[in-house]
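INTERNAL AUDIT FORM
Audit reference: QA-55
Scope: verify that the stored structure record matches its stored sequence.
Auditor: D.O.
Record contents follow.
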Amino acid sequence: MRGGPGDAERRQRWGRLFEELDSNKDGRVDIRELRQGLARLGGGDPDRGAQQGIPPEGDTDPDGGLDLEEFILYLQEREQRLLLLFHSLDRNQDGQIDVSEIQQSFRALGISISLEQAEKILHSMDRDGTMTIDWQEWRDHFLLHSLENVEDVLYFWKHSTVLDIGECLTVPDEFSEQEKLTGMWWKQLVAGAVAGAVSRTGTAPLDRLKVFMQVHASKTNRLNILGGLRSMIQEGGVRSLWRGNGINVLKIAPESAIKFMAYEQIKRAIRGQQETLHVQERFVAGSLAGATAQTIIYPMEVLKTRLTLRRTGQYKGLLDCAWQILEREGPRAFYRGYLPNVLGIIPYAGIDLAVYETLKNQWLQQYSHDSADPGILVLLACGTISSTCGQIASYPLALVRTRMQAQASMEGAPQLSMLGLLRHILSQEGVRGLYRGIAPNFMKVIPAVSISYVVYENMKQALGVTSRLTTIPGAWLPLSSGRQAGNLKLGSH
């Protein structure tokens, strides 16, 4: 590996770069000059780069520009980070990054790329035609070029925060260290929670119909969607279609917060000395975090089911419902159906993650030549398909859970265990009996996804969530040590 030049030579090189960018010779580099300089130097998309702005960590006085000393200090720190990243990718420590090391780095992040794509990535940085990248090629490339990178892939392809279809069993999102330090993580979680609240309220009638059919539909009564809606409206009026929605919205915040905190702790325990988590490890961490959150907030799930199925005048409100359950059935009633609920996390989260990763990799393989951004329609379609597949796999367990939660409040209903209830349903109704209510569940997916996305985007704007980290264009490097393939381009330059 060719070592970097001495400090004096580096300062001269950075000084020449500063002079070239400082077109009006006022001793400062601002966003306009960055845009013009990048276009002149061939640094990728200048508009995209300029939108990322001046780095606050480099600008010691908040005037929107960098003087020479600030510029040199920033590039000095940037080179140090680039050097660390170079060493982490150079797995055999021979001073060169080759095609196989690029593929390994992507694979560690759960992204499969072909040999041809890896060669394109390498070719975009290889100036001497050796089909390897040394330190100088790596440094010069990422100090001057604004490229789509793996962090872009991870940002664009986040989906569990954005999409709320009434189930909280997905693997949590990844947040970079920069997002955590700047507070963007909690703003995204708040935006997701508000989006989920609006989405669940908008689709509450279909959700109540699903629960109603899960518990009451059978071979004998042939309860269908129209019959269920008619029955609920006749019993309690149109307002009754929103029964149980209050606590369904109320449980979003504690569940999201607990799951996020548990996920971070479990990830840290699993990762140990590793730099990254593989997809399988993310699944394990996400499943354990989901089980932790569900264990803590599960009494709210039982209350939600009881309030959703309540008759007019049965309960005065949430507290009265909780008190009646405690008084008549004891504290154990608040954990009825807990086992099938926790078991349902594994097929739901596993299949949701597996299908999403498969669809993501298919898109990246075929269409990511110029950008890692799939566009909103592709993103929503992939999220909807993966969540729907997860629901289909876990639905029988969800139905058993709901019936176990409700059976104590139903007159004459047998008090069965999970296995006893499964045997009862299969003997009386067959396999179709395990999918009662799945039609309204599917019907709510598209409106739920659409509403949650629109609200999420508006909330992000209201909270000032930036869609990129704020850095000098072309010199962007993730602060997170957990995603070390952060600056490799997908596709040709």
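Auditor finding: record pair retrieved intact. Residues 1-5, 42-59, 145-150, 467-493 have pLDDT under 50 and may be disordered.
Action required: none
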